[in-house]
Amino acid sequence: MLWIVITFLLINAGIFIFSCLRTKDINLKTSDGYFLGGRSLTALYIGSSLLLTNLSTEQMVGLNGQSYSGTMSAMAWEVTAPIALIMLAFVFLPRYLSSGVSTIPDFLEKRYDQRTRQIVSILLLLGYATSFLPTVLYSGALVLDQVFSISSVLGTNTFTTVFLISLFIGSASCCYIFFGGLKAAVSADAIYGIGLILGGLFIFVLGLMAIGDGSLLNGYTELTSVHKEKLNAITADNSAEVPWPAILTGLLVNNLFYWAVNQSIVQRALGAKNLAEGQKGALLAGVFKTIGVFYLVLPGVIAFHLYGGNIANPDTVYPKLIVDLMPTALVGVFAAILFGAILSSFNGALNSTITLFTLDLYKPIYKPDAKDEELVTTGRVFVVVLAAVSIIIAPFILFAPSGLYNYLQEMFGFFNVPVLAAVVVGFCSKKVPALAVKWAIPAHIALYTVSKVFFGHIHFLYILAVLFPFSVLLMLFIGKIRPRAREFKLERNARVDLQPWKHAKLSSILVICLMAGIYLLFSPWGLAQ
């Protein structure tokens, strides 16, 4: 255990020092330097950071837990993401970069008005602060507790242990954001990203060998011949994690918001050195997402072969695999990588929330004439406050209902649809006024709430599939009867080169083919036949 702790600490300390050194050429006293990495990020940093900001223990633990208790249909959360990332590369990112915006609400202000920007900023802040940030801390604390047996060593109950580990994670995250801004965070992500993929694939290989009594070939035979029904990712069953009819309907809406509008994700691409690097980074992340099925979902099926249906809490499956399969000498290494995934998601959301607060609320409302140095100072103060609130809330998630991963996705459904609709309509229409957004947001929240009360038996992705076109049509209708006095014209204020990547289209086709191939593999026409 001592060796595990030592390697864990040394690896994380080394990566932190490296990340801070990477910021030496960035002026952290400017808002672009602190919040957007000086708009100097290249494809590898963007792609790995997009992946790591998305990946954390709620994915690694939650998705493997879902495949353990269900089928491979849970892989839809990962494998279909490239569609949204391609849309980000070709539709959303060129418009964002050409306008020179720093945040999505900043774009909404240019398109509609300042009040719209502030409303959306507040919605995003509430979503991150009350659900996402505390959940990352909570799920990360559970994993680290199982790997290091912290509660047993300290003799504390689960509530106290979660609080103490959350305090450690939150403090480490504040060090990245406080001292290095976005550049330090994405520099660490690049290293953690490679380690996470390699470590996750190693667990997959070790799992195959375990069910094959030391033989990879026997393990593959066992996996594909016994309980073949668990390898099927295509099912229309409403009780499935993701029914296939929802993939190109409600799930597409959910993914478009997450990958093309969600500030914590898009902020990585907004820091691109140029459009070509941003497109490369987005498509690289798409490749990462398709192969993620092998370390985010399949280990859960392998765990079913190893342990049967005897594990009461599916969320404990992945940590159990780490402890049982990983050689002792490498447990600390992989724990450090896993900690990096936790840290990255927390860093990404934390950096985005302070950007939203500082640039969308503090400056326009309280200090319109604030200088960059003051904005950075304010952001650093806010990050400490927000992290403290998240740390306090995290242990109370113990009392939340089961199925935390789906619960989080459903909670984001309260505001993701109208925000996505506002951006899409803003791109496509010149006459829709700010009033349309201000009507669409409360209308969606009211209807989504009604759906939870009266139509809870219907998968929430189907609800999103109906409410998104409703929000778009409502905004267009208001634009028809109460159009803007003057047609909107997006002013070009590009701060980077907007020349697209020459291989972007070919790369997109290859990514789509890879995605289709993965679905064919895990279908009744593939391994599940």
UniProtKB/TrEMBL annotation:
Gene Ontology CC entries for this record: plasma membrane
Transmembrane segments: 6-22, 34-55, 75-98, 119-138, 158-179, 191-211, 242-261, 282-308, 328-359, 380-399, 461-482, 503-522
Location(s) in or outside the cell: Membrane
Gene Ontology MF terms: D-glucose:sodium symporter activity
PROSITE patterns recorded: NA_SOLUT_SYMP_3 (PS50283)
UniProt keyword list: Membrane, Transmembrane, Transmembrane helix
Domain of life: Bacteria
Keyword Magnesium listed: no
Membrane topology annotation: Multi-pass membrane protein
Protein family: Belongs to the sodium:solute symporter (SSF) (TC 2.A.21) family.
Protein name: Solute:sodium symporter family transporter
Species this protein is from: Bacillus swezeyi
Native organism taxonomy: Bacteria, Bacillati, Bacillota, Bacilli, Bacillales
